[in-house]
Amino acid sequence: MKSRVEEIRSQIQRMNSRSIFFADDFGMDDRQAVRVILSRLAKDNTIVRLGAGIYMKPRYSNLIHSIEYPSVGDIAQAVAQKEKARIVPSGAYAVHRLGLSTQIPTRAIFLTDGSPRKMTLEDGREIIFKRTAAKNLAYKNTTIGIIVSALKEIGAKGIDAETRNLLARLLESVPYDKAREDILIAPEWIQKELIGILRKGSS
Question: Hey, which CATH number is domain 4-67, 1.10.10, 1.10.890, 2.40.128, 1.10.3470?
């Protein structure tokens, strides 16, 4: 009969490299014992601790000569999938995700229909989940959802020609009908801005 350590180690060995997992994923009642085992595995570099109760099976990159760490977006998506919740980037993080800012925020905010919470990662970065109305998560296309969040952060007066050119390039990857359907969910001033960009691109 396998020990708990062997069972957990075996499950981790079957995971793909860079898989993100949680302390309560192992189907064991004694969660404290699981955390102790995971702590030991982290110390011997079998796994990497990303934050409280969240871990990753590491993959070493010969290119950067280091472990490849997941982005905050990857970690947030793993949390959302576990909760069966929807998320969309918000605030300065949404602006950065679109490439409208080179500044990487230390606090990544996501709107969600799951549990509100704040996670502090091992490297000091924070992931914040804010509960929001369903309409803010109703976008079927991920790109449109991020664009709307970013524009809310920038504001109407912050949109310049460079921003419009970037948005035009992003919208090229979204079928017109689907883009228009999602855009009509957005605030009116964003609707006008994006529809104007779409019309200019299709003319």
Answer: 1.10.10
